[in-house]
Amino acid sequence: MLTVRSTIIIQFPKKTLWRTSELIALMAISTTLFLFIHTRDLSSKLKEMEVKMQPEDMVSANQISSGDSGPASYDMKAMMKMLQGTGGVTSLNPYELNNTRNAQQDVIFFNRVPKVGSQTFMELLRRLSIRNEFGFHQDRVQRVETIRLPPEDQLRLAALVSGYESPSVYIKHVCFTNFSEFGLPEPIYVNLVRDPVERVISWYYYIRAPWYYVERKLAFPDIPLPDPKWLKKDFETCVLSNDRECKYLKGETREGIGDHRRQSMFFCGHSEECTPFNTEGALQRAKMAVEKHYAVVGVLEDLNTTMTVLENYVPKFFKGASEIYWEEISRYNTINRNTFKPQVDEKVKDIVRQNFTKEIEFYEFCKQRLHKQLYALKLQKP
Ligand SMILES: *[C@@H]1O[C@H](CO)[C@@H](O)[C@H](O)[C@H]1NC(C)=O
Ligand SMILES: *[C@@H]1O[C@H](CO)[C@@H](O)[C@H](O)[C@H]1NC(C)=O
Ligand SMILES: *[C@@H]1O[C@H](CO)[C@@H](O)[C@H](O)[C@H]1NC(C)=O
Ligand SMILES: *[C@@H]1O[C@H](CO)[C@@H](O)[C@H](O)[C@H]1NC(C)=O
C-alpha cells in the first residue's frame, strides 16, 4: 500500500511548481514556512493549489476545552428555537439525516482541515481502528501538499481509496473529492470544522512556534529560517497595521502568506469557483457537499456532541469513541498545546470576523447540522 501511495505523490507536478517564478518570488520575499502557492498547469489549465503542511498539525487543549459544550450542558429550549429557524423540528428524523446509509463502500474518507484538531482526531481513529477492527491509512507527510487537484489526480486518489480493504479509514489534507463523479463507490465522508477566526489565529501562531520551524528545518534543511521580525509580529499588530499577511479580502484568489483562511474550501471541492475568498458561490457549493455527502461534520468546540453523533451515525467505526477520547486521548492534549499563542483581543477578532462572513456562515451551518443530528437522536430515544 505504501508504494501505491508514493506513486500518487510523484504524480503531483512538483517539478513545474518549483520552477514557477511566483514560488521563487514568494520564497525570496518571505521566509514564511507556510504558503499557498498557485501556478498554472498548462496541460489541464487548472490552477493547482499547493499547501505546505507540517507533521505536527496539533491543537491545544485550551482550544478544545474552552468552547466545549456537550450534551451535559445542553439547553433543549435553545436548541428547539434554533432548529425552528432551519426547517422545523418535526422533520427531524435520524434516517433522513444519515448519509452513512448512502455509502457504497465501508471506507471513511476523512479530508482533514489543518488546525482543526485533526492530529487529535487521527489519534482517536488510530485507536478506534484497533478496537473496532478497521484499516488505518493516512497520506504521507509531504513538504508541499496539494489540496486542490486536477481531475486526473482526483480520480487517482478516489481509486486508491476505493482499493483499500474495507472497513478502512483514509486521512488526507485534500479538498472534497466526489467519488461518484468518477463512477467510484461513495465512501463515508467525515470531517471537522472549527470557528474560522480562531482557526486563522491558531495557524498564525502555529507557524511561528519555535518547534514548528526547527522541525521543518531538520526535515528540509534548505528551507531558510524565518526573519526574527516576522516571528515576533503579533496577530493584533498584524491586523491593525493593515499588514498584507492579515488582510482578508473578498473574492481574492491570491495564494500567499497565511492563506489558511478558507476552511470551506475543504468542503467546496476542487473547482475553480472554490478559490475566491468569502464568496457566495463557494459557500453554496460547500454547503451542498456537506448536505449531500458528509455523514458527519464535527465541531471542534463541541466535541461531546461530535462524539455522540459519530457514535450513532457511523457506529461501525466510532463505537466507543467518547470513552477512548475522554479516558485516553484528552489527557495528552496538553502536550500539543502551543504555549506561544498569546490571547488575542476580542476587538481584533471582531475586525477579522467582519471579513469572514461566508466562512462563519459555513461554520454555523455545520454546527446546526450536527445539532440537528443530535436532536433527532433524542427525539427518537425519549
Ligand atoms: C463531555 O463529556 C465528558 C465525558 O462524558 C464529561 O466529563 C465532560 O464534562 C463533558 N463536557 C461538557 C462541556 O459537557
Ligand atoms: C476587510 O475588507 C475590507 C473591504 O474589502 C478591507 O478594506 C479591509 O482591509 C479588510 N480587513 C481585513 C482585516 O482584512
Ligand atoms: C457528486 O457527483 C454526483 C454524480 O456526478 C452528483 O450527482 C453530485 O451532485 C455531486 N456532488 C456535488 C456536491 O457536487
Ligand atoms: C446510520 O446508518 C448507518 C449505516 O446504515 C447505521 O449503521 C446507523 O445505525 C445509522 N444511524 C442512525 C442514527 O440512523
Automatic annotation (TrEMBL):
It comes from the Eukaryota. SUPFAM superfamilies: P-loop containing nucleoside triphosphate hydrolases. It comes from Photinus pyralis (Common eastern firefly). It is found in: Golgi apparatus membrane. One of its GO terms (cellular component) is Golgi membrane. GO terms for molecular function: sulfotransferase activity. This is Heparan sulfate 2-O-sulfotransferase pipe. Belongs to the sulfotransferase 3 family. It is a single-pass type II membrane protein. The chain crosses the membrane at residues 21-39. Keywords: Glycoprotein, Golgi apparatus, Membrane, Signal-anchor, Transferase, Transmembrane, Transmembrane helix.
